[in-house]
UniProtKB/TrEMBL annotation:
The keyword Mitochondrion does not apply. Keywords: ATP-binding, Nucleotide-binding, Transport. It comes from Psychromarinibacter sediminicola. Pfam families: ABC_tran (PF00005). CDD domains: ABC_NrtD_SsuB_transporters (cd03293). Belongs to the ABC transporter superfamily. This is ABC transporter ATP-binding protein. Residues 5-238 form the ABC transporter domain.
Length: 261
């Protein structure tokens, strides 16, 4: 199968104040992600997960190599690639409903389509009854659900999520993971999801890609074949967590060997 996202020998060097201060966050990274796959990027802090996501989004330009999405080289942001950040990025002066509808308006949808799609997405994330509230009146979990609804409403082919549940308490986080999965199972998109949490990766992913500090080197690609919904307490789940944790530990040590599963 041809990959929907093809990351080809990707290198990203951030310029410093002078040449010796330049910093290479990613060097020669390659990864193929087929359509409809749910991939989690896992790795120690600072290994380059957000940098890789920003390059797929087109927010950053590679120093070398390329990101190809749907056969086209990424040269900048596009509605086809929707991003959800850890911080909710909602417009504070708009209601929940208007935050979702704004993106659809920008896309040129008719008023009727804007209303229908906004309602469908807000119902999917259980915020329809809160649609007239402003972001300051919402809990952290509700704000993140609104941000997800806003991105999903645009109907992107690729959903890029940078630790979207990182700031939430465990219970809210588990609930939102389940909600995200049920939306994803209803209308599959390709998802690239950055997380620090082994449990989150095993809950969500078809495949966990483990990156190391060493210029974002990919040390493991671990398929998670547990059936969904996944029981976080089951023996099989705990076994998968153990396997992913062991890889992450290897990634945290600088001389990690390549263990591509
Ligand atoms: N704009 C920038 N200029 C210079 N260096 C940067 C820039 N953005 C990121 N970096 C550096 O690149 C490296 C990778 O950062 P990145 O944010 O991608 O890591 P991460 O794996 O997402 O980390 P975390 O898990 O802590 O969010 C870090 O050392 C960071 O300091």
């Amino acid at each position: 199968m041809t990959a929907q996202i093809s990351i080809q020998g990707l290198t990203k060097t951030f310029p410093g104040r002078n040449e010796s201060a330049a910093f290479t966050a990613l060097s020669g990274i390659s990864l193929d992600i087929p359509a409809n796959e749910f991939v989690c990027l896992l790795g120690p802090s600072g290994c380059g997960k957000s940098t890789l996501l920003g390059l797929i989004a087109g927010h950053e330009q590679p120093t070398d190599g390329a990101v190809v999405v749907g056969g086209t080289r990424v040269t900048g942001p596009a509605a086809q690639r929707g991003m959800v950040f850890q911080q909710y990025a909602l417009f504070p002066w708009y209601t929940v409903e208007d935050n979702v509808r704004l993106g659809l308006k920008v896309q040129g949808l008719s008023a009727r389509e804007q209303m229908e799609r906004t309602e469908r997405m807000l119902r999917a994330v259980h915020l329809w009854d809160h649609r007239r509230k402003f972001p300051r009146e919402l809990s952290g979990g509700m704000k993140q659900r609104a941000a997800i609804a806003r991105t999903l409403a645009i109907d992107p082919d690729v959903l890029l999520m940078d630790e979207p549940f990182g700031a939430l308490d465990e219970q809210t986080r588990n609930r939102l993971q389940d909600e995200l999965l049920s939306i994803w199972q209803g209308s599959r998109r390709t998802v690239v999801f950055v997380t620090h949490s082994v449990q989150e990766a095993v809950t969500l992913a078809d495949r966990v890609v483990v990156m190391a500090h060493d210029k974002g080197r990919i040390v493991a690609e671990l398929p998670v074949s547990l059936p969904r919904p996944r029981d976080r307490m089951s023996v099989e789940f705990v076994e998968a967590e153990r396997e992913v944790s062991a890889c992450l530990k290897r990634a945290e040590s600088s001389n990690a060997p390549n263990v591509i599963a």
